[in-house]
Amino acid sequence: MFKSTSPSLILLGSLAVVVGLVAIAWPGVTLLALVILFAIYAFTDAGLQTMRAFSGRGAGPAFGHLLLALIDLAAGAFAVAWPAPTVFVLVIVLAAWALAGGVAEFFAGFQAGEGAGTRAVFFTSGLVSFAFGVLLFARPGVGALTLALLFGLYSLVYGFSQINAGIHVRQLGKA
Predict the structure, then answer these.
(1) Could you tell me if 87 and 135 are in contact, meaning their C-beta atoms sit under 8 angstroms apart?
(2) Which of 73, 79, 133, 140 could hold 99 in an S-S bridge, CB 3.0 to 4.6 Å?
(3) Three-state SS letters, the chain
(4) Distance between CA 112 and CA 175 in Å, rounded?
(5) What mean pLDDT value characterizes the chain?
(6) For residue range 38-82, what is the model confidence (pLDDT) as tens digits?
(7) For residue 77, what are the CA distances in angstroms to 49, 51, 63, 166?
(8) What is the rounded CA–CA span in Å between residue 56 and residue 97?
């Protein structure tokens, strides 16, 4: 079992390292790839919603699924036709999520029964998330570039950790 797992971990890690290097070297290409993936998701979901519309018995659910399919088609077409505004919307959605999550985490620190260390973690992570959201709202263009670079760094760290895990699993298999 160990011998068959280690090559797949090492291969997965190597691919993640390559993706990370590409993301850092060409952040614009990374953002375009993200937009294309979103468009593929939207078109796929449009097809699935259409299938669900015609697989049901009632007209009410069919209308709702067809409406969702049309919205998905419009979102996918918009993403393909105008990738820059799509990235901008993605950054704004992420900023709103970071703001809301930061506020929720900050107030979670006031929960009864939590220790001082746990409260400090909630307060700190809430403030960091809130500040991240404010920065993304203030500078969405820089935020988009930063997201691409962070994705690249994450891919590098993940890739090296998978390669390391694969090497350790291989050594366990030999032992």
Answers:
(1) no
(2) 133
(3) CHHHHHHHHHHHHHHHHHHHHHHHHCHHHHHHHHHHHHHHHHHHHHHHHHHHHHHCCCHHHHHHHHHHHHHHHHHHHHHHHCHHHHHHHHHHHHHHHHHHHHHHHHHHCCCCCCCHHHHHHHHHHHHHHHHHHHHHHHCHHHHHHHHHHHHHHHHHHHHHHHHHHHHHHHHHHHC
(4) 49
(5) 88
(6) 999 999 999 999 998 888 676 667 888 899 999 999 999 999 999
(7) 16, 19, 21, 41
(8) 34
- Write the CB contacts of 17 (distance below 8 Å, at least 6 apart in sequence): 155, 156, 159, 160, 163
Weakest-pLDDT range from 6-20, 91-105, 113-127: 113-127
Q: How far apart are CA 62 and CA 136, in angstroms?
A: 38
